[in-house]
């Protein structure tokens, strides 16, 4: 009996080792719990353009061809597969299904199913440069895109095909805007062009600045604003024929504390001067709103004669390249993506 016991005892380590080897070779562990989802917005992301619809849906586009979509007014976002890996500079939408995005290297991508599939399309390239900066979607499937190398592109079929309007030239056009058949373009060296025939022809008008203009918007056929580097603000009241320059003071000079809403926290008001770069401007239905570097948000009166500056929060030094307003809130994109319910008048 002792002999049998001794044999079993001596064999026990071999049995344990054999069992461990079998488990390691033939038994595959089953994962427990859900894998951590990759966040939509990651450290190092940069977003340059956005398109906002009236029903809570919006797109944002940016570095590495990244596209994000919300259908609930920014409460949640999901990544959409892009057809490119270059930085996308802007996106525009005709409706919830049709949209177009443009970017570096002359990239143009379109969707006709709400972004389930984005596909690349051919667009004219030039010999100087091919970075497309802005795209605007107009009624009837029309679109305009502008960029470096004098690129001025037009589409009439929801972005599927494009043609160059005008010659190649050594200038970057940074934005384009239309009101009915009137059009305006702004770009490097303060240059401004105007069209009164739906973009068929363009003529240059005198500009009071040599600073690069980054954005232009008109609220009607007569009244518009252009903004640019070094805090330049230009105002026109005659359809872009003539422009005058307005000023504001940096949020880092002569502050006065003001009351803002809960999302924006306390801000600061400043009245004259210019320091920060302004990269986008919109007419929000009530007033002008411009955004730019160092967290700057500049509010213009209805007639664009008075401009005051603040930040989303006192310590905000993010840069914002684009702003848009839906019926319920504002969207800002740049070094981060921000939504806010309201910006009270300064």
From TrEMBL:
It comes from the Bacteria. GO terms for molecular function: hydrolase activity. Pfam families: PSII_BNR. Keywords: Hydrolase, Photosynthesis, Photosystem II. GO terms for biological process: photosynthesis. GO terms for cellular component: photosystem II. Gene3D superfamilies: YVTN repeat-like/Quinoprotein amine dehydrogenase. Residues 85-166, 198-254 form the Photosynthesis system II assembly factor Ycf48/Hcf136-like domain. This is Glycosyl hydrolase. It comes from Paraburkholderia elongata. The lineage of its organism: Bacteria, Pseudomonadati, Pseudomonadota, Betaproteobacteria, Burkholderiales.
């Amino acid at each position: 009996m002792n002999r049998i016991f001794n044999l079993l005892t001596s064999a026990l380590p071999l049995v344990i080792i054999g069992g461990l080897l079998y488990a390691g070779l033939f038994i595959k562990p089953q994962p427990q719990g859900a894998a951590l989802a990759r966040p939509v917005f990651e450290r190092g992301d940069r977003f340059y353009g956005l398109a906002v619809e009236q029903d809570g849906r919006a797109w944002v586009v940016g570095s590495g061809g990244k596209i994000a979509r919300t259908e609930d007014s920014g409460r949640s976002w999901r990544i959409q597969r892009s057809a490119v890996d270059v930085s996308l500079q802007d996106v525009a939408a005709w409706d919830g299904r049709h949209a177009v995005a443009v970017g570096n290297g002359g990239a143009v991508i379109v969707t006709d199913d709400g972004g389930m599939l984005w596909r690349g399309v051919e667009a004219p390239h030039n010999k100087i440069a091919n970075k497309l900066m802005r795209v605007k979607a107009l009624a009837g499937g029309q679109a305009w895109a502008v960029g470096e190398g004098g690129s001025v592109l037009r589409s009439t079929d929801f972005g599927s095909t494009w043609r160059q309007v005008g010659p190649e030239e050594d200038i970057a056009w940074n934005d384009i805007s239309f009101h009915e058949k009137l059009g305006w373009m702004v770009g490097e060296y303060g240059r401004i062009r105007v069209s009164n025939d739906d973009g068929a022809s363009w003529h240059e008008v005198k500009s009071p600045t040599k600073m690069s203009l980054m954005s232009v918007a008109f609220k009607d056929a007569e009244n518009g604003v252009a903004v640019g580097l070094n805090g330049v603000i230009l105002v026109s009241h005659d359809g872009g024929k003539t422009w005058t320059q307005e000023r504001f003071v940096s949020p880092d000079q002569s502050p006065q504390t003001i009351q803002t809403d809960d999302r924006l926290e306390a801000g600061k008001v400043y009245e004259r001067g210019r320091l920060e770069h302004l990269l986008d401007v919109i007419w929000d239905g009530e007033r002008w709103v411009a955004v730019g570097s160092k967290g700057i948000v500049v509010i213009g009166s209805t007639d664009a004669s008075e401009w005051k500056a603040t930040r989303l929060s006192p310590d905000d030094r993010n840069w914002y390249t684009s702003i848009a307003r839906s019926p319920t809130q504002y969207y800002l994109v740049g070094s981060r993506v921000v939504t806010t319910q309201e910006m009270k008048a300064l």
